[in-house]
Amino acid sequence: MNLPIRRALLSVSDKTGIVEFARFLAGRGAEILSTGGTAQAIRAAGIPVKDVSEHTGFPEILDGRVKTLVPQVHGGILGRRDEPAHVAQMQEHAIAPIDLVAVNLYPFEATVAKGAAFEDCIENIDIGGPAMIRSAAKNHAHVVVVTEPSHLARITAEIEANGGTSAELRRELAAAAYARTAAYDAAISTWFAGQLGQDFPPRLAFAGQLAQTLRYGENPHQKAGFYLDGSARPGIATAKQVQGKELSYNNLNDTDAAYEACAEFDAPAIVIVKHANPCGIAIAEDLATAWDRALLCDPVSAFGGIVAANRRLDAAAAEKITAIFTEVVIAPDADDAARAIFARKKNLRLLLTGGMPDPAAPGMIFRSVAGGFLAQSRDAGRVTEAELRVVTKRAPSAAEMADLLFAFRVCKHVKSNAIIYAKNLATVGIGAGQMNRVESSRIAAWKSEAAARAAGLDQPLAVGSVVASDAFFPFADGLETAAAAGVTAVIQPGGSMRDAEVIAAADAAGLAMVFTGMRHFRH
Questions:
Q1: How many domains does the chain have?
Q2: What are φ and ψ of residue 61, in 5° steps?
Q3: Are residues 420 and 467 in contact, defined by beta-carbon separation less than 8 angstroms?
Q4: 265 Cβ neighbours under 8 A, 6+ residues apart
Q5: What is d(CA 312, CA 336) in angstroms, rounded to the nearest whole number?
């Protein structure tokens, strides 16, 4: 049944479109009730409006904390028009029905995001707003609830077409209302947990806002959507897509992996990712050179990959990147010449974020399991040269040390078991996601051989490189495989029962080896 709007309560912090909406309702004979700044804006536009305090006969008290938490408001919202007892009680207590409630909440999330003081955050916790929203949503059979400015146009169109709102629309808006208050409460509870130093509170609530319904998930028979958590971390969620086809589930996942890896480095860096694993990473004096060195690691896998840069893209880098088929390019920015070059590839997605994420910043990551989900802090761990422990007879040279630290930082972003060969601040062989470390070592060595053949070189890229392992070598065989590939130095966490055996194997091969005391599993 289409219900007309005879009385509407409008009280919003985001006033986008609210004056026009009030004018539309008033033009159809509706009485407008309002509070505070919303009432002022409506009145300034010459639209008749009644303050809620005048409607209820009760003034705003406690610095405005109590202004709508009164029977005249909630009775008008919750009263059932089809229940004679409700109608009689409303008439007995002079409670007028309210047919539409438009409320968006105090900007608590924005207040927290700007680093406001504790008391300011507390004062931006809305009480009356959520109460009215929930009341209107519960009684959606008779009341329209509006929680987003984007709802106003659809409501207006339906009233213009049908003289009132449909049950279908009211139910849809009620569902959106409960989702909004749930997200609001989740933000408040998360903030409170942080204030109390609770990394893992007894009840964890979080919410996301749908950014995009995706064509499908990892496979065409799976459904998928992309949700935003409201954080300001630069990356896939905050990026502007300048050009290209719609991003897929796999594009989003791989692009996030590439950009997070690229953020690890201060020097100009290029990361090429395929199926969530890097297939080439390099740092250099400029992006074009970094691209050449990253591509050399595995040019076969780079075809159809995802490319991340940690600097503004220029024409030289854009020309090189577009020389092969690339699905997505993500960077903080791109100059006009680079954008023009990328524009030649109409299907290539170009994403610009405006900044780089801080790899050391705290944060949480989640993973679903049957019946629940796992939560852990982001792997923000980094080791410095001063924290390394030399365990072999020979210490690394300065050049080896630079490559060791580079390779171990790459390890954070490669699926376990992870083995990284690196030389001159570029990966030259990556072994990822194997069930044992020896196979990862062999695969990385094999890839360095294949890359050398593709480049027409006389010896595998791994010759003269260093090797990084994301976890300790449980036996000497993984290290011996790396030694056979031509490495000169090793970085690994250490901590195996057979560390002495592994150290002895390194000494026998003339390798330098350092322990980090930190591992980087990535499953």
A1: 3
A2: -130, 170
A3: yes
A4: 283, 310, 406, 409
A5: 11
% of the chain with per-residue pLDDT over 70: 98
Q: What is the pLDDT of residue 67?
A: 66
- Per-residue buried b or exposed e for 216-252, using 16+ beta carbons within 10 Å of the residue's own CB: eeeeeeeebebeebbeebbbbbbbeeeebeebbbbbb
Q: Does residue 234 have a pLDDT over 90? A: yes
Instruction: List the catalytic residue out of 50, 138, 245, 345.
Output: 138
- Give the mean model confidence (pLDDT) for residues 268-287: 97
Q: How many residues does the chain have?
A: 523
The domain boundary residue, chosen from 195, 229, 263: 195
Same domain, 156 and 257: no
- Which single residue is written with the structure tokens 């090429």? 272
Catalytic (active site) residue 140: no
Euclidean distance between CA atoms 164 and 36, whole angstroms:
27
Phi, psi (deg, nearest 5) at residue 350: -110, 120
Residue 214's SS3 state is strand
Domain of residue 42 covers: 7-195
Instruction: Identify the H or E element spanning 225.
Output: strand 224-228
How confident is the model over 151-208, as pLDDT tens digits?
Answer: 999 999 999 989 889 999 999 999 999 999 999 999 999 999 989 988 888 888 888 8
The tens digit of pLDDT for each residue in 331-347 reads 999 999 999 999 999 99
Per-residue pLDDT of 348-383, as tens digits, reads 999 999 999 999 988 888 999 999 989 998 999 899
Of 275, 346, 413, 423, which one is the catalytic site residue?
Answer: 275
CB contact at 8 A, 260 and 284: no
Could you tell me if 406 and 449 lie in one domain? yes
Angle among Cα 148, 192, 14 to the nearest 5 degrees reads 20
Give pairs for 56-63: CB < 8 Å, separation 24+.
60/35
Whole-angstrom distance, CA of residue 482 vs CA of residue 439: 11
Q: How many CB atoms sit inside 10 A of residue 456's CB?
A: 6
Contact 71, 93 (CB under 8 A): yes
pLDDT at position 64, please? 66
90 and 178 co-located in one domain: yes
Mean pLDDT of the chain: 92
Q: Note whether 168 and 263 are same-domain residues.
A: no
Amino acid, single-letter form, for residue 243: Q
Q: What is the pLDDT of residue 96?
A: 87
Q: Is 138 a catalytic residue?
A: yes
Is residue 461 within 8 A of residue 482, CB to CB? The reply is no
